[in-house]
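Workshop exercise sheet. Pairs work together: one partner reads the sequence aloud, the other fills in the structure field after running the prediction. Swap roles for the next sheet.
Pair: D.N. / O.F.
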Amino acid sequence: MLPYHRFYPISDDFRSPYARDRDRIIHSGSFRRLEYKTQVFLNSQGDFFRTRLTHSIEVSQIARSIASHLGLEESLAESIALSHDLGHTPFGHIGGDTLDVCLKERGFESGFEHNFQSFRVVTKLEQRYKAFLGLNLTYATLEGILKHSYPYNKSFLPDEIRDAFALDTHPSIEAMIVDRADEIAYISHDIDDGVASGLITFETLKSSELIQTILQKVYDEGIHEDEDEMFRYRFSSHLINHLVYSLLEHSRDKIDNSRVLASVIPSSEPIVIGFDSELETQIKKLKKLLYQELYQHKHIMRKMFAGKQAIIGLFNALMEEPKMLPRYYLEQCERRNVHRVISDYIASMSDRYAMELYNELYGREG
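Structure field:
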């Protein structure tokens, strides 16, 4: 199947195939709901911190810039970036991990995995056309969503997916770019949000060699930590630029931009988008530092624990009494597995709605 082909017929219009994908994703309900889903800080904690929506937009901007400089399909990179988090549950990764445990504990071995859920959102759960389910995106966009994490051939994937997608090949280079753009974006904005919230300081971050390099760039502009908001802005800007330029320098001579390489490069071959070994090591050390000092901070852990309990409570309650489901989901229970309908419903919730419903069902104060 060619990269720009779709699984269902489509009429021509003024847009390129990948630009049409981008527009369909942006206009989907699942994309809009990302505004109310956690990145690191729960959405209820204020309007300043990043959400899944702002994160997806930032990833898209970085991915599009990289693709443009490398002469690749910008709109394809943008489409994959905007849709890569559509399957995320409320409460960030802990929400997805908890939903996975809930399903498996009840004997549903396929569990829950947010990358595959993103694929299901655009192929099954979004309903915009009478003749078929999903958004009818191009093969290359779907492949980029499905293969967002390695290894690609996961045990829970149904045979129809194995037959349609070459799981022994890498996704397109545009999808590889999105994976690294995702990393660049979340490192940058998690530091910004973490410092803004007071949960981590630049003094703590100075143990990272990469952070020292970026801080010096800000100091060279004559800006210091007491100029808080400006300092954080300039830091984020320099960090993103440093990582993007380093990625371009390391990757430029390794790619083939003559065509979209969907399902072409064997997965046994190295991924051609990345950083030199020294910077890769610095990034790994920084991510470890963020994990220890920010993601496991007691305030974050308390909020994530509350989210975990909400997911468990909602799943158990709805499995016990599916008639509490909204009419749309309740009707689906007649033709689909109830456990999957319930997990789809919970995964679609915002942080605030999930917590409000949990408190309502269990008679607790918000």
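Discussion prompt: The CA atoms of residues 57 and 360 lie 33 Å apart. What would you look at next?
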